[in-house]
Structures are given as structure tokens and as C-alpha cells.
Amino acid sequence: MPADFSGPQDAAALVLQARALAGAGEAARQLLNGKNLALLSPSKDDQSASEFVQAAAALGAHVSLVQPGLDARSSARQVEDTARMLGRLYDAVECQHLPAALVQRIARSAGIPVFAGLATAAHPTTALAAELDGDASPADKRRRILQAALIVSMA
């Protein structure tokens, strides 16, 4: 199953990690240093794709845009082979604008954290930004929640 952070314990862990990031300063820039993330999305120009890249890069990760090449009609073997290859090349995968069933199939075979639209406005973690204290902008709070999700899932 893709990592969705929809449970109450998951949400609490993300908020706690996001609060810690707020005080981490320069040290946060190294938390994902050397990690390679894949962004499976038909478009790199999408707002949520840009937000994911910025959040990960601010932690030191490298993000590669990967054209999915898969759809709901892809054979089980195609999905499994692609997912295993992604698992060898990357430390985590963010899937945006892909069918939920396809993302679930990828997550079963990848062997790494797979996110289903983590940086999209429709993701359950979006609401968690409101739980963060301080006078940071809503965009900065959302970015911290995204970063917390990456850190928690890749630790």
C-alpha cells in the first residue's frame, strides 16, 4: 500500500517531525543528503510536482522526473518490472496523477516508500499544515509537512 499517513498516529508523527524541522535550521538541509527520489508524473510543470521537488531538494535529496510509461492497462509484469527497477534506482517514489490502483500495484513491488500524490492538495496530509504553530506562511507549513512525511517514511 502507498504511504498515505491517514491514521491518527501517522498524523501526530508528521506534525511532531514538522515542528522539529521548524527549529532545525541549516541542519535540515542535510537530512536527505544523498537520497534519490523519483517523481512519476506526466507533467513536471504541475504545481504539486514543483512543491514536491522543492520540499525534497531543501532536505538535500535529488529528485528525478520519470515519465510513468504505465497506465491502468499495463500488464502485471510491466508494473512489477518497472516497480522493481524504481526500487533499485530510488529511495522513494512520488506518484502524481496516476490511477490509485496503479499506484497500489507499484507500491506492492517497489520495496521502497511509494506516495500517492503526497504533494497534491487532495492528499490527507494537506490539512496537517494548519496544526503547525508560528507565523510561517501556509505554503511554508505545507512544505514542512511534506518534508516530515519524507523523513518519517525514509528513516
From TrEMBL:
Pfam families: OTCace_N
Residue ranges of domain Aspartate/ornithine carbamoyltransferase carbamoyl-P binding in the record: 9-129
Cell membrane keyword on record: no
Organism domain of life: Bacteria
Gene Ontology molecular function: any one: amino acid binding
GO biological process, one term: amino acid metabolic process
Record-linked InterPro entries: Asp/Orn_carbamoyltranf_P-bd, Asp/Orn_carbamoylTrfase_sf
Keywords: Transferase
Protein name: Ornithine carbamoyltransferase
Coiled-coil regions listed: none
